[in-house]
Amino acid sequence: GCMSCHPAGGGVGPDLHGLYGMTRPLADGSTVAADEEYLRESILNPNAKVADGYAPMMPSFEGQLSEDELKQLIEYIKSLNATGN
Ligand code: HEC
After folding, report:
1. Sign of torsion over alpha carbons 59, 63, 67, 68
2. Distance between CA 12 and CA 45 in Å, rounded?
């Protein structure tokens, strides 16, 4: 599901490679540190902070993921950095 909107190189949503740890520009002109808290919020409440250059059209996954699944997703997004691909 996630990768249909978040393919490498970007699609409807931003490419998630290299996201973790960066300073993320937001649509409202502010920036946020892309840490675990930001990743968590971006999945549960995507419209709270909208990534600059993208439409706020990601559905909320609140209630659809267990805490374990959410943690795995966050670890997965973090791993997209470590491997460099
Ligand atoms: C219908 C398409 C769609 C689906 C499905 C989707 N996303 Fe998104 N996502 C987006 C869009 C568009 C944005 C940018 C706007 C925003 O920040 O809300 C985004 C933003 C994000 C961000 C913030 C990215 C950044 O560069 O700051 C993360 C993290 C994210 N999504 C993770 C996920 C995960 C994990 C899933 C699967 C559980 C998922 N998305 C499913 C469309 C989608």
Report:
1. negative
2. 17
- Pocket of ligand 1 contains residue 43 by CB under 6 Å: yes
Task: Please list the pLDDT of the chain residue by residue as tens digits (85 residues).
Answer: 899 999 988 999 999 999 999 999 999 999 999 999 999 999 999 999 999 999 999 999 999 999 999 999 999 999 998 655 5
Query: Ligand 1 pocket, 12 CB below 6 A?
Result: yes
Q: Report CA torsion sign: 41, 43, 48, 49.
A: positive
- At a CB cut-off of 8 Å and minimum separation 6, what does 83 contact? none
Domain 2-82, CATH: 1.10.760.10
